[in-house]
């Protein structure tokens, strides 16, 4: 496929691959490709190898399902974290957003998405079973449901609440400092931090 009238099929191929990245159009891809072309060969090799190494060697934490370099991620392996407090999030971007607030000292459980029948995503497509196993183990005292305040997020929160409510666990949710319809990754750090600190019981939120 000809891209922007390029005379080199090698450059054209690089532009095509770069344009597959989210938010990268053909013209931006061309600028990136030309930038890479100006770098020293060893710099481009280092760039490419780092991506290949990431794709081949990255793992998912056996405890929380977060992205990790090892079987257990740095957060779960940190003895200073409160292992009895588990914050349930959609994906790695939410972990990063909450960690950036420096207000949360517990562990995480990454679901890998939200229940969304329109997108063909059901409970069995998420890591819900392992969360229930944690509840059954009796090792956690509180679960914070920290999914985005969208319809899909609220649906997933309610599903998890029904699954967890019969265990001796406190179930809480973020305070509504996070606006209705907001995704956590786009919420500013101060607002998100305060929403964690001032979280409330989930069953109370059902009555508001």
Short description:
By secondary structure, the chain is of the alpha/beta class.
Give an overview in words:
With 208 residues, this protein is α/β, with parallel strands linked by helices. It folds into 2 domains: 9-57, RecR Domain 1 (Helicase, Ruva Protein, domain 3); 81-205, Dna Topoisomerase Vi A Subunit, Chain: A, domain 2, CATH 3.40.1360.10. It has helices spanning 9-18, 26-38, 41-57, 74-77, 92-99, 128-137, 151-164, 189-197, 202-205; strands spanning 59-60, 67-68, 82-89, 106-110, 142-145, 170-173, 200-201. The protein has a 5-stranded mixed sheet with strand order 4-3-5-6-7. The chain has a two-stranded antiparallel ribbon with strand order 1-2. Helix 1 crosses helix 2. The longest helix has 17 residues, at 41-57. The N and C termini lie far apart (55 Å). The model has no long low-confidence stretch (mean pLDDT 87).
Tally of extended strands? 7
Output the CATH class name of the largest domain. Answer: Alpha Beta
User: What characteristic shape results from the CA principal axes?
Assistant: elongated
**CATH overall fold name of the largest domain:** Dna Topoisomerase Vi A Subunit, Chain: A, domain 2
Q: Uncertain regions: pLDDT < 50 for 5+ in a row?
A: none
Strand order of the largest sheet: 4-3-5-6-7
H and E string: HHHEEHEHEHEHEHEH
CATH architecture of the largest domain: 3-Layer(aba) Sandwich
Q: How many domains?
A: 2
Return the average pLDDT rounded to an integer.
87
- As a percent range, the share of strand residues is 5-15%
Which class do the helix and strand fractions yield? alpha/beta
Termini separation (Å)? 55 Å
What's the helix count?
Answer: 9
Assign a percent range to the helix content. 40-55%
**Biggest beta sheet attributes:** 5 strands, mixed
User: What's the Cα radius of gyration?
Assistant: 21 Å
């Amino acid at each position: 496929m000809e891209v922007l009238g390029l005379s080199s099929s090698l450059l054209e191929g690089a532009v095509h691959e770069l344009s597959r990245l989210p938010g990268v159009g053909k013209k931006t891809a061309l600028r990136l490709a030309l930038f890479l072309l100006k770098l020293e060969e060893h710099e481009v090799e280092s760039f490419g190898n780092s991506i290949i190494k990431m794709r081949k060697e990255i793992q998912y934490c056996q405890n929380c399902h977060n992205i990790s370099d090892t079987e257990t991620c740095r957060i779960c392996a940190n003895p200073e974290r409160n292992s009895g407090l588990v914050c349930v999030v959609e994906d790695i971007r939410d972990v990063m957003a909450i960690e950036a607030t420096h207000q949360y000292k517990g562990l995480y459980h990454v679901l890998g998405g939200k229940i969304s029948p329109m997108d063909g995503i059901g409970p069995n497509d998420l890591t819900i079973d392992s969360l229930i196993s944690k509840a059954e183990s009796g090792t956690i005292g509180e679960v914070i449901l920290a999914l985005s305040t969208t319809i899909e997020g609220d649906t997933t929160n309610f599903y998890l609440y029904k699954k967890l409510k019969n265990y001796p666990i406190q179930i809480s949710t973020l305070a509504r400092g996070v606006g209705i319809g907001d995704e956590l990754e786009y919420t500013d750090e101060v607002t998100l931090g305060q929403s964690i600190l001032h979280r409330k019981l989930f069953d109370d939120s059902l009555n508001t």
